[in-house]
Design goal:
- The chain starts with 10 loop residues before the first strand and ends with a strand.
- 31% of the residues lie in helices and 26% in strands.
- The strands form four sheets. Strands 10-9-8-7-16-17 form a six-stranded mixed β-sheet, covered by helices on one side.
- With 423 residues, it is of the alpha/beta class.
Length: 423
Amino acid sequence: MSTSSSVEDNTNISNKGERVMEKHDKWLSGEHEYLLQLIKEYPESRNQFYADKLTEKFGFLFTDTAVRFYIARKIKQTMQSLAPTIPSYGEKHEINKDGSQSSDKLIAMTENDTKSVDFLLQAHGFDLNEWELVSARNNIWNTNDKDNGIQTLYSSKITVKPKLTGMDWDRLLSVVENAPSVFVKPKYIPGNEHYLNIPLFDMHFGISDYNHYKPTQAKVLNLLKKSYKETLFIIGSDLFHHNDHRNRTASGREIEHADMSVAWEEAVKFYEPILHEALKCSEKVTGIFIKGNHSESLEWAFTKYLSARFPQITFDTDFKERKVHMLGNVMVAATHGDKARKRLNEVFPAEFPLEWSRAKTRELFIGHLHTEEVIDKGGMVQRALSTRNKTDSWHENMGYTTSHKRFQVFEYSRDEIENIHFV
């Protein structure tokens, strides 16, 4: 029996005088190498295909059964021995001095999984309610498996820290929406055509507390001894210093530490008596939520709390940048002031054409910079509001300490502004 590259006459004569090809008996190195080559070139082919090719090349009859057994016994061993040697992976878990933990594991995951914070925490064995991700690095790592050959996994290294004071938003919203309601018997005297606008921007509860704002509360309550056709509250616009209990703003930037649980309670003590009195002296009370850049989620939740607490008040809690409300024929516009600040005289008439056309007086209220400025341009007065908030460490370090510390409350007739009260 020969294994030369040319086909020899390996046939026998049958009893009937027919030439019959001799059946292949013993595998030789040339046949082994040729079968290996066929498998590499045609990896998805059937064993019968390999058998036919071998028969054609070597002149012996190869059967699919013989080829299948030989692949199972010899060829897989050869292919595994030719595969690159890949070192084993040593998994690690470390507890760091600052209380954080680091985990290094080999994980089967998709490219999308590498971008999922929840997947990475769970894959490394961390509870989503107790840990938060600090950093993650995922690199492709090949591994050699006896049955499946080379597989692509990921070398995943993450660092996590405990959620010592994490914010459970679902629980908070449940508390907010189930707050006991307050009903107030109004003492409004019909016929009064005066309106009151109370835009307390940039209060930053957490830096400033209730005691600091008690004089402001007393002055506002004094204004509510009169009767008003409607009282408007603009609520939010950095009502709190942080957006969560981890000292972060809405953008995720960590800033000066403050206790948001206490800050929430202080804001409740400030606002509830004022809203209570407003319901007594006003035919209608309206609250508009304006999101700030520090605490948009927390102040939105607070506004939802007030909405549940005072069902007699009409609250606009939509999560929009810019809003308007009509007090008689006065258009009151509001936005925090951190976006499109220089184009607001163009943006508001474009976004609110009906209110703009109806109004005899148009006033826009913005905050953010904690500095007073009045610009009368293009048919609208733009009022940048100051704040009575304490100076935090960042503003002090940057030298932003010269602005007047005060809030303003605005009183209107049906068509125009009549008084500005400093509170």
